Amino acid sequence: MGTNGLLRPPRLTEGDTVATVSLSSGLAHGVPERYAAGKQQIEATFGLRVVEAPNSQRDAAFLYRNPQARADDLMWALTEGDVRGIISNIGGNDSVRLLPLLDHGMIRQYPKVFMGFSDTTIQHVAFLNAGVVSFYGPSVLTGLAENCGIHPYTVDAMRRVLFSPEVIGEIVAAPEWTEHLLDWGDPKNQEIPRTFQPNPGWVWLQGEDQSAVEGQLIGGCIEVLEMLKGTEWWPGAAAWEGAVLYFETSEEAPEPWQVEEWLRNYGSQGILAGAAGMLLGRPHRYTMENKLKLFEVVLKVLAEVDRTDLPVVADVDFGHTSPIGVLPNGCRARIEPHNHRVALTEPAVS
Predict the structure, then answer these.
(1) In what order do the strands lie in the sheet with 113-116?
(2) Band (348; pLDDT cuts 50, 70, 90)
(3) Predicted pLDDT of residue 3
(4) CA-CA distance, 275 to 348, in Å (whole number)?
C-alpha cells in the first residue's frame, strides 16, 4: 500500500499475461495489422503473453451500441485469474458511459496493472476513487505498436514503473520527440521509421525560485476530465488537496481559450489553490504560437487565484506525444524547481 493509502497492484514479471481492452473506440478492429504489431512487440520486448478480452477486437459500431460489453471486458480482465495486467487498445470519446455499468468494488478487490491514456482518463479516475494506483501511459495502438519497435524511452519507463517494486526516482525528458504520423491503415508503413527531432527538454513556466514540493499525482486528458465534472465520480476535495496535477490536451488541439475556461473551474473549486505543483504534457498538433498562448493562459489563471508560486513544468513527455512516458496515477511525485528535477518518490507496484 502506498503512503497515501492507495493499493499498489502486483508488479508485472516476464511470463505474465496481460489483456487488451477496447473501452471506448473500436479502432483496433479497423487496423488489425497495427494491433498485431503492438501485440507482437509487447510480447517480444517484455516477455509478456497478450490475450484479448472478449470484445477487445469488436468493431466500432458494436462497441458504441454496447457499452455494457466494454464494461464487462474490464470486469473480466480484473477477475480472470491468469491476467496480471490490462492495457487499453486506444482512447476514444465515450468511455464515461461505462461508469454506471462497472462494479467499482471489484477494482479494489482485484488490483491489477491498468494502463492507457486519453479517454482512458475516465477509468483512471475510477481506479483512483476505488483506491488503486493505475498508469497513465501508452496504449497498444499508440506507443506500443510504434513503427519499427517500441521506443527505448517508453520501454525504460514501463520497466521502471510497472515491473519494479523499487522507488521509481527521477523521471527525465525524452531525448527526442515527433508528431510525424504514418497511415496506420497501410501495413507497409509499420516498417518505416518515423522522423524524430531533438528534444530541448521540459519548460519550467513558473516557480523556479520555490522550494521542493511533493504530492499525489492526479489528472489526465483535460478534455476528458470535463465529462466528469458535476458527476458522482468526480474525485472529492481530499484527492486534490496538495496534489501534483498533470494535464494534457488531445489530438483535437483545443483552443487556448477553452483550456483557460476549464482551468478556471479548477480555480473555482479551490483545486488550484490547494495544489502542490502542475505538470503539462507536450501539446499535440499545436503551432508554436498556440502553444505559447496555451502557456500564457495557464499562468493567467494561476495568477487569478494567487498561485504565481505554483511550480509548473510544461512539455512533459506523457499523453498525446511520442515517445510516451508512464505516470502512476495516485502515486507521489516531487518537483524540485531549483534543480529542474521531477521524481516519483515511491514504488507504483508491489
Answers:
(1) 49-52, 17-21, 83-88, 113-116, 134-136, 327-329
(2) very high
(3) 66
(4) 21
Measured distance CA(8)–CA(168) in Å, rounded = 13
- The residue-averaged pLDDT of 198-210 equals 97
Q: Determine the Cα–Cα distance for residues 314 and 336; give it in Å rounded to an integer.
A: 14
Residue identified by cell 497478450 is 50
pLDDT tens-digit readout, 178-194: 999 999 999 999 999 99
Give the span between the Cα atoms of 66 and 306, in whole angstroms.
Answer: 46
Q: 94: Cβ–Cβ under 8 A, 6 or more apart, which residues?
A: 24, 64, 67, 119
328, 168 Cβ separation under 8 angstroms: yes
Cell 491489477 appears where? 112
pLDDT of residue 241: 98
Residue 56 burial class via C-beta count within 10 angstroms: exposed 0-12, middle 13-18, buried 19 and up: buried
Residue-wise pLDDT tens digits, 212-267 = 999 999 999 999 999 999 999 999 999 999 999 999 999 999 999 999 999 999 99
**Domains, the chain, with CATH or none:** 17-167 (3.40.50.10740), 176-344 (3.50.30.60)
Q: If you average pLDDT over residues 121-147, what whole number do you get? A: 98
Mean pLDDT taken over the chain: 97
